[in-house]
Amino acid sequence: MKILAFDTSNKPLSVAVVSDGKVLAQMESTEKKTHSVTLLPDIQACLKKADLTAQDLDLIAVAKGPGSYTGVRIAVTVAKVLADTLNKKLVGVSSLKLLAANGDKAHILVPLMDARNDNAFAGVYQVNRDDLRNIIEDHHTSMAKLFESLQDYNQDQLEFINATPRLQELIQNQFPNAKIIMSENSLPDASKLAQLAENTKPVENVDDFVPTYLRLTQAEHDWYAKGHKDDGNVSYVEEV
Prior knowledge:
This protein is of the alpha/beta class. Helix content is 30%, strand content 30%. The protein has helices at residues 35-49, 69-86, 95-100, 143-149, 165-174, 190-198, 218-225, and strands spanning 2-7, 13-19, 22-29, 59-63, 89-93, 108-116, 119-128, 131-142, 158-163, 179-182. The strands form two sheets. Strands 3-2-1-4-5 form a five-stranded mixed beta sheet, sandwiched between helices. Helix 1 (35-49) packs across helix 2. It is globular, with a radius of gyration of 18 Å.
């Protein structure tokens, strides 16, 4: 199976082309450029290096969030357009699950994305038959509440992944014996995304596939702050 996989849900950008488990081409970037500018050229470069055309692909795999609102939207939009126009299967994988793939399989894995003000996007994963199983669902939480949910686990078995310096400080104060992998040492890897995608059910309807944000966007927050209600029908975007 030939898979194009990419992740733009955070500052690093990762693109890979994988065929039957073999990485044919991969590009990583941490440059301060917008992913909207670099993603498509990187995809084209990887396909060229792999000596494949887009039509040769069997599956498009994308990290669907959570993460940067803009970054997640870019990746999901590109993935949907490619899957639809090329008539290829599409798989979305949690961006936190992708980070968890960087961890030690023997540990309880806690991938993080710093959401500021001592909050984070977090999930808790455990390896089960060579697959990562979500034992606490991905969610947006305060670090204090996350720590409460982890109290029943042996801290020697906990491994926090993608910690910023501030999150590292909080973790060490609560779980001094836990393992911590810092952000610079746990960059998302699109080749691992391709591997995860092989064991993930493709989306049934490409048009219905949406990013996973796990919290309101600022526009939605402002909309509801003005007293508008979520009735399931009215858009939060006001008419001008």
